[in-house]
Structure formats: C-alpha cells, structure tokens
Amino acid sequence: MTFLQLKTKSYxxxxxxxxxxxxxxxxxxxxxxxxxTxxTxxTxxTxPASAAATAEQPETVCIQCxxxxxxxxxxxxxxxxxxxxxxxGISCNACHGGDPKDSAEAxxxxxxxxxxxxxxxxxxxxxxxxxxxxxDYLGSAHGKMLGQGGPTCVxxxxxxxxxxASLALINEKSCxxxxxxxxxxxxxxxxxxxxxxxxxxxxxxxGFQAEGVDTERLGKALFAIxxxxxxxxxxxxxxLVKKExxxxxxxxxxxxxxxxxxxxxxxxxxxxGGFAVGGALVLALxxxxxxxxxx
Length: 295
Fold this sequence. Notes:
The protein is mostly helical. It has helices at 3-11, 17-46, 50-56, 61-66, 71-81, 84-87, 92-96, 122-127, 131-138, 153-157, 172-175, 182-210, 216-230, 238-294. The chain has a domain at 18-45 and 179-295.
C-alpha cells in the first residue's frame, strides 16, 4: 500500500482509494488527455503522404524500363524516387511527355513526348507547372543571365532528384559554385525568422483543423502569405528582401494573435472539462458515502 493510499484511507475511512485518487487527479488527467489527443491529431494530419502518393500511382513504363538499366540510363529513376515529385506521385511523363502506359509508344512525339529540354528551354519546361516561380526567376538577376552562363532551375533544384523548396537550398556549397556566399547568406538570414514563423503557424492551424476547429480563413490567409514569401526566393536585392520580410512578419503576427485567442479558449475549456469530470467523481464519492451511512 502506498503512502498516498494510507493518507486517503485515514481521511476517508471506508471509501475505496481508487475513487478518491480519481477525484483528485481528474483535472490533471483531463488536461493531459486533451493535450495528447491534440498532439496525436496534429502529427497524423501533418505526416508525410509520400508513401501513400507513390503507392497510389502505378509505375509507368518509363520507370519499369529505365529502373532496370545500369549507369546513366537507370540513374534518373534512382534519383527520382527520393524527389518531391515522387512524393507527390508525379512521374516521368508529367515533365517529359509521352505515353506512360505503352512501352512501344512511350517516346513517340505524336504521343506528346518532349524529351529533355535545352538549357535555355528549362525555365519554360518547369514553368508549365510553376508559372509564378518562372516569372520570379526570369525577372531576377539569375534569370536575366539565362543562356549566358547563369543558373537555371536544375542548377539549384536538381533535375530528377528535385527537393522541396526551402531556405536550405541557399547554402555555401551550392551558391559558391558561381559566386561568393556573402550576399546569399544575408538574404537567407533575413528570411530565416519568417520561414520559421510560417512553419510554426502552419503546424498550429493543422492541429486545430484536426480537432474540428474551422480554420479555413486562417489557412487561406497563411497560404497567401506563404506565396508572397516564396516570391523572395529568387530575389538577390538584400535591402528589398529585408523590407518585404519585415512586412510579411507583421502579417504573420496577426495570424499568431488570432491563434493565441483560440488556444486560450481551448485551455479554458480543458480546465472546465477537468473540473466537470472531477465534480462528477466527487458526486460519485458522496453517493458512496451516503450509501455507506444508510447501510
């Protein structure tokens, strides 16, 4: 018998310890259960869908054929499997065209096969799916050097092993292939806080959505802010990036304030729920005492 059980028996003789302990711990248990449920829901909602997306997409004849080939003929498939395109079920034909179901006609121009683009064609090639990003790139210092030794989409993002766009792409190893890293570092540092705020707010919104809270308006607002932020990814004017990042942070601050109101409301509900459960157990305890009295 534990010390706590001895104490409860001394204060409440004849009352089962489990009832007393349950009444005492009810508020804490309610808060812990609510927090754990919210955390689990948020994790489930934000879990990567890469495995599901890839599983839903049957392998194209391109992958079936090239996947079994050695060296440079099979390498694109190996790289693609770890890409953001593969994570989202986007296969070879989405970029290169052709018939993904007919091995004999897969590379037939009449079936829409495009093949690999020339260097100067790469922005338009990728821009079929990313028109906004293509516009940002073409208007940037990098884009203005297209065809003159400047970088294209694949220089930074890769061709088959395309990674998800993030500030991690702005790194010394990558950028210093063409120039010093100083300006790029200043731009990355100016954007770091903004990106962290966007990720944090997105996680909070997703968590509330999993709990059944109407977050549609907040989600749309964050989507617009994120798109605005992403237009800075190809900008090389440090002063402009810092100015725009400050304005974006102000907008994120408004979303943060709204989320705090929701969080405070949920915290009060959890406390109220804990007291309600505790009250119910206390009533059960009193009922038990009354029954023992009459017995």
